[in-house]
Specification:
With 98 residues, the chain is mainly alpha-helical. It is built from six helices and two strands, in the order E-H-H-H-E-H-H-H. It has a two-stranded antiparallel sheet with strand order 1-2. The radius of gyration is 13 Å and the shape is globular.
């Protein structure tokens, strides 16, 4: 699953005092990909979202939508399928609000 949106990665990365190069090394995601997410919000896979979320210690919800919700489940121990199901449910609920 991919979703195209503007991500909050830059602020979260800076808050953790990480450079793009350091985040790239931690996540094994190319620096150019991270730069694209920060600049224009290019597509991201669930797998990469989980890597970034874990590395920055921030929920996928906050990375994608900029919304902090303490009730959100810590996804670091979920499988990719579980994360996809949670994200699909969340997105369907948000679309119902619009």
């Amino acid at each position: 699953m991919t979703r195209q949106t503007k991500y909050i990665f830059r602020d979260a990365r800076i808050a953790k005092n990480l450079t793009i190069t350091e985040l790239s090394a931690e996540t094994k995601i190319p620096p150019a990909t991270i730069k694209a997410w920060e600049a224009v919000g290019s597509k991201i896979t669930i797998k990469n979202l989980k890597k970034i979320s874990k590395s920055l210690e921030i929920s996928p919800n906050e990375l994608i939508f900029g919304e902090s919700d303490e009730r959100i489940l810590n996804v670091s121990k979920l499988t990719p399928l579980q994360i996809q199901l949670v994200l699909n449910l969340y997105l369907s609920l948000r679309m119902d609000e619009d």
